Structures are given as C-alpha cells and as structure tokens.
Amino acid sequence: MRPTQQTITNGASILTIDDDRFKTSRITAAFLLPLKEETASANAILPFLLRRSSVDYPSFAKLQHRLNELYGANIAADVYRIGYYQAMVITASSIDNRFALEGEDITAQLAELMRSMIFTPLMENGAFQKSDTEQEKRCLAELIQSEINEKRLYARRRCEQVLCKGEGYAVNRYGSIDGVDALTPEGIAAAWENMLKRAQIRIISQCAGGSGNIAAKFGEGINSVAGRAPVTLDSALNWQPGEVRNVTERMDVNQAKLVMGFRVSKTAKPDIAAFRLMNALLGGTPHSLLFKNVREKLSLCYYCASSYDRLGGVLLVDSGVEEKNAGLAQEEILRQIDAICRGDFTTEEFESAKRSAINQYQTVSDLQSTLANWYIGQSLDSEIATPEEAAKDIAEVSPERVIEAARSIKLGAVYMLAGEGDKK
Description:
alpha+beta; Cytochrome Bc1 Complex, Chain A, domain 1; six-stranded mixed sheet; five-stranded mixed sheet; globular
C-alpha cells in the first residue's frame, strides 16, 4: 500500500499509512540533525528525557494515569543513524479508534500528548530536571557500554569509524561515554532548543481511516518555535577511494573479529536495487557465496556475512576468525567479490539470492514497527518507495547490473579485533 505525504510546515512533513490490518494505531516523530561528535550525546539523550514528563503531566504518576486513560497507551524513544544524520525518535501507540468504547479519537489524543511532551517538557529555571537527567545519563551510558560489550557489533562500529574517519557516519548514534558524562541539564536544554529550531521533522501516522488531526496537533507545536530554520538534508555520496586503512586492536576476546569496509566510489546515484541484490548474493543470506565458500567449504570463519547501507554507501563484511587464519580469510573474501565482478556465479545462486532479497522486503510491512523504520530510513529521499516497490525493483535486476554494482565498490578499511593472548 502506498502512503500519502503532506507538508505540515517548512522542514516538517507527515506520512500517513491508512492500514486496517492492525488493531493498534501508532505515531512516530523523528527529528533529524547532522551527526556530529560534539552534539551526538546531547541529542541522543533528548528523546529519553522527553518521554518522561511534560508541563501538562509533570510526574510519572500523572503521565501513567493519562496513558491508562488512553487504553494503556505506550510511549517509546530511540535514536537512529540515517546516513550521515542522527534521528531522535519518539513513538506513541494505543488501540485504533475503531475499538474505542465511546468512539473517542484516541489517535488525536495521542498526538496531543506527544505535542505536549516534545514541545513543552518539564523544566526548572530553563533546564531539564537534574534527577531525570542523571537517570537518563546512566541509562544512555549503559546503552553505549552494551555495544562495546557485544564484540561483533563493537568491531563493526570500529570498522565504520576507521573507514569513515572525520565524517558523520563514523559517529556513534548515542555519542560517547565521555560525552554523556559531560552532559548538564542546561546543555541538554540548549540541545533541545536547537533540535526544535534546526531539525527536519518526519511524522509517520499508522492507523485505519487516515491521520485525522495529527498534522494539526504537530503543526501547533512546530509553529510555536521561534526562529525555526531547518537544516537541508543531503544524501549525496562523494567518497573517492584512497589508501586502505588497516587497524588491529586487542581485547580479552576468545575469537578474533575481522571486518572489511567497502564504499561506493561513484558520486552518481547508485543502482540501489542492484547493490541490495549484490549484497544478498555476496553475504546477505545463509546460502551466500561467503557462507558457502569462506565458512563452509574452506572453514576459515566461524561466521562470515555482509551488509549494505545505501544511505552511507557502505558495505561491511564481518567474520569471526582465528587470528592465524585472518589473512587467508581476507584473501578469500576479496576473491568472492572478484568472482561477482567477473560474473562467476551460477544462475541458481543468483536466483536464490534474488528470492531471499525479495522476501526480505515483502515482509517489512508485517509489523508496524519495521514499516515505520522503513519510512524513517527514506527521510533523505526525494521520493518515497514502498517495501513492495523495492521488492519489485530487485525482481527486475539483471546479472549485468549486479556485476556493475560489485565493480563500483572499493576496499577502504580492514579492522581486526584480536585476543590479547594471541599477540605474537
């Protein structure tokens, strides 16, 4: 199904998904700003603070009472990386209007609650409450630490940092632990004011019967912001290949992690469908070339997979290896990419990858959460595409287009996280 999009005001739009398959309605508000090291932590804590209270609901008890009145509504917060941008996201969900006992417009009331929380948060002397700030600082630091503790994820993040050094893409969406430690209630309040003035705002409404008064409710909040001048979103990829950066770090790990970072070297708009299928063929499915050859046939890795981020123009190949096998694994991974560049893959392998990729996009709409995330990820695009359209585009990709996509990626970084006991 194709959603409708309308402009609320300059730099703010609403995407309406009229969907009666679900019994719940869901409103997602995303605020996009450039991802920068100096502002990442302050921006990241904002959605978690904003979901706690507002001037209208100044305590947890009062907010919870209001959520209960809305049939047990739920407020959630998160932070995403969208290409080179940081998206601060707040989501509200409750039963759809069709099931309200007295015919209430629950969706409009959810929108009003979100407007209150986002645009009139509870403050003291122009700053967020100290107790709330300290609690959310601890939670945010724990989120960052949890990514460090998950070594596969940590290795992928470090490879991105090496590959995209000096760029917004290299910055952690949550910022850094040092950055979180330095946050103050006053500094966060300044970040909130900047977010309201400068962020591009994307509202996603998922309910049966359209968005109703949601646009008007958010419009009231946005129009109350004095001096609003939203940033311009740019999705251009301007990276050019250079010297490959090699970094090895050591920690107390039992299994080395090898991550190879590739980037799209063209400045022109890439063939997204071809890249998605190329990734599926290379290492994006359980029956990919990397899985069959590097892991199963040669037993060089415990796992070996690839992922492609179209907005960053980044393809990562990550694997778990014995350090002594890292060199051989790297050579074989490059050999599999070269095989795609030469068209050295079977029709069965190509069609299997295509079926897997198509199925992946056809299932996006099965959950409201994944569908909302899909459209948030389209915030940088001039035209939105449905998951079904993405699946159709992949179905039309030829082997020649996949070969061309593979030929346009260049190795930019090799990162290895190895055990301390393996040091020679």
